[in-house]
């Protein structure tokens, strides 16, 4: 694969598996931007069509993240559907058809390894080809959405201490909502941003904010300093006419201590055991409203087993066709209903529930990010400092 042209990885895998395992069919399916279907990377004319992410053998393998077998009709061949995943980010499915006598547990283990290698090679190859990004589209992206997707770090990530998943809707026409994260040996930083306005204006504003935050983070500033630098960059460009709502968090991986700056509308929720509650934070000015705004970080702690969710105002302020507000109680119930799902799939599930409430296929510009905290096995427990109690506080679920 490393010797192949960036767009020819699947051809190279197909040839190699035919020679080594007698594979008669090798097909890569990629999850589309909306996480609704699996699209074939190199469909044969009139043959392969997009597959449901929920009602197909390939989709079930994608959801479970486990290899699945499917007996081919009228023969002894077996299709093996193998997740293609990179550091927790679910990319697609590699489907390999083997003769029945070659479909052994050892072969499945080897094919799983091939699928893992393919996922990593695709991430590298995307620097030099548009082929994989084109294959993930079932319709055209707006220019604003194109800019936003290119800005993202991915849609999921896993490490020893945490698992993250995030999703944006409407996937093919997002405007100003965005998320970003970065981890090193000591810290994890997460930013959820929402640029005001619509279309290209909102996307450009979010691009400026995210890159300003990255520049500050990579310069070694704490999160209060990161917020201040991004605030100055946005104000200098727009002189207060535009602003960016931001929720900025930094986790100490060794202790679970969290520093947070609440600069706008994104909300932070926590599920601990059977209790779902909104974490009360002191609201500060959105980035870019005034010249040289001052920001202060607050502290709290996460414990192993905690789940944190960050949502934009497009979620909790959504309206039904009858004008009913989605609100915090409905959001708390939706969070509780996704308790058993892994972090990578929770955001999409929350936004699907929101779409059902709105009686629409996709919500208006909405973002959800989920973080499951595992912590380090040797982490010492720490006392959690109290947070100020603003007007909006805990919203209990019926089960809590």
Automatic annotation (TrEMBL):
Taking every annotated instance into account, which residue ranges of this chain make up the domain PPM-type phosphatase? 159-373
PANTHER family, per this entry? STAGE II SPORULATION PROTEIN E, STAGE II SPORULATION PROTEIN E-RELATED
Query: Which organism does this sequence originate in?
Result: Streptomyces camponoticapitis
Q: Which SMART domains match?
A: PP2C_SIG (SM00331)
Pfam family of this protein, just one?
A: SpoIIE
Among its keywords, does the record have Metal-binding? no
Protein name (Swiss-Prot/TrEMBL): Phosphatase
- Which residue stretches belong to region Disordered? 378-400
Report keywords, A-Z. Answer: Hydrolase
- Cross-referenced InterPro entries: Bact_Sigma-Reg, PPM-type-like_dom_sf, PPM-type_phosphatase-like_dom
């Amino acid at each position: 694969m490393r010797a192949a042209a960036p767009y020819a990885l699947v051809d190279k895998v197909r040839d190699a598996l035919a020679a080594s395992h007698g594979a008669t069919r090798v097909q890569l399916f990629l999850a589309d931007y909306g996480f609704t279907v699996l699209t074939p990377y190199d469909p044969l004319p009139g043959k392969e069509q997009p597959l449901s992410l929920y009602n197909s053998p390939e989709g079930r393998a994608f959801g479970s993240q486990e290899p699945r077998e499917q007996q081919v009709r009228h023969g002894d061949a077996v299709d093996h559907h193998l997740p293609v995943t990179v550091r927790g980010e679910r990319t697609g499915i590699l489907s390999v058809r083997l003769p029945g006598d070659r479909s052994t547990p050892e072969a499945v283990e080897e094919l799983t390894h091939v699928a893992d290698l393919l996922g990593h090679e695709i991430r590298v190859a995307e620097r030099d080809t548009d082929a994989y990004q084109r294959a993930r589209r079932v319709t055209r992206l707006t220019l604003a959405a194109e800019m936003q997707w290119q800005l993202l770090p991915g849609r999921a990530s896993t490490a020893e201490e945490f698992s993250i998943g995030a999703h944006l809707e409407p996937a093919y026409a997002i405007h100003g909502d965005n998320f970003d994260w970065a981890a090193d040996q000591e810290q994890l930083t997460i930013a959820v941003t929402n640029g005001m306005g619509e279309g290209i204006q909102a996307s450009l504003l979010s691009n400026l904010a995210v890159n300003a935050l990255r520049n500050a983070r990579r310069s070694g500033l704490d999160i209060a300093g990161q917020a201040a630098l991004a605030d100055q960059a946005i104000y200098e460009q727009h002189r207060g006419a535009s602003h960016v709502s931001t929720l900025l968090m930094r986790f100490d991986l060794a202790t679970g201590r969290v520093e947070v700056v609440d600069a706008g509308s994104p909300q932070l929720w926590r599920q601990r055991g059977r209790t779902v509650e909104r974490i009360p934070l002191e609201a500060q000015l959105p980035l870019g409203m005034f010249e040289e705004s001052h920001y202060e970080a607050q502290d709290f702690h996460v414990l192993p087993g905690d789940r944190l969710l960050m949502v934009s105002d497009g979620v909790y302020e959504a309206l039904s066709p009858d004008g009913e507000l989605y609100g915090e109680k409905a959001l708390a119930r939706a969070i509780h209903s996704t308790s058993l799902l892994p972090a990578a799939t929770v955001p999409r599930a929350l936004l699907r529930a929101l779409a059902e409430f709105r009686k629409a296929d996709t919500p208006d510009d909405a973002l959800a990010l989920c973080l499951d905290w595992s912590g380090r096995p040797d982490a010492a427990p720490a006392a959690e400092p109290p947070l100020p109690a603003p007007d909006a506080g805990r919203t209990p679920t019926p089960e809590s």
